[in-house]
Structures are given as C-alpha cells and as structure tokens.
Task: structure prediction
Amino acid sequence: MKKLVLVFLFVCTCCLGFAKERESKTFLVLFDEAELKLLQTDMGSIAEQLNPFFPTKTYEGNSELALLIEIPTTTFNECLLGEYWVSLSDGRRFQLQQLAFRVFDLSENKALYQRYVGKYESDLEQKKKAQKLAKPATNP
Result:
C-alpha cells in the first residue's frame, strides 16, 4: 500500500512538473483622451475595475492612451472583452467597447505576423534558388 501511494505521489509530481503553462492572451485597448474627459473618467479608474480579474498595465504618452490586459484563458476574444461593463464615477455604466477607441488581440496579431514573416522568408528563399539556377545557364 505504501508503494502504491508513493508511486501515485511520484506520478502526480512529475505531471505537475512537466505540465505546460497555460497560454494567456494579451489585449491592447486604446482610448481617446478627449472622449474620456468628456465622460469625466480616466484610464486609471477603468484599469482599477479590470484589475481584480485580469492583470493590467496602463501607458500614457504623446499618442493615444493604452491599456494592456492579460487574460489567462485563450478562449477570450475582443468581443467578450468589449462587452465587459465599466462603471463611471457618476454611476453610469458603459461597455468597454463603447469607451475604447480600439481593442486589439496582440496574441492573434503576433501569430499572424509570424505567418507573414515565414511566408516572406520562404518566398525570398525561392527567389534566391531561382536566381542561382538561372545564373549558371547564362554563363556558358
């Protein structure tokens, strides 16, 4: 019986040790500063409402206001994030997609970018091969 328990614990420990980390998705939400001022709110208060559920980072600079949201499940998409309700200081409630200028799924865009780079590199490689084959034929 002791051996069975030890084997069970060993297998469980190995499974946990070699388990893949769950992939998460990162979303970029852009806000128009003038629109937020018109609604008498700021990006910090929006981030505070999302922070108990998802880790967030805010960026303010010379361009649009940006909010990065990391969501632990990969089944989440821009539409579901946009439907999240945000309460303003005066009690009004808006969906995030109504407040945001644009919502981007950075994980999806990264995969798309990798596909484009791969296709470009394969096309470039084919052109190089075609040039190498054409060069000896023209030098007799």
Notes: The two ends are 82 Å apart (CA to CA).
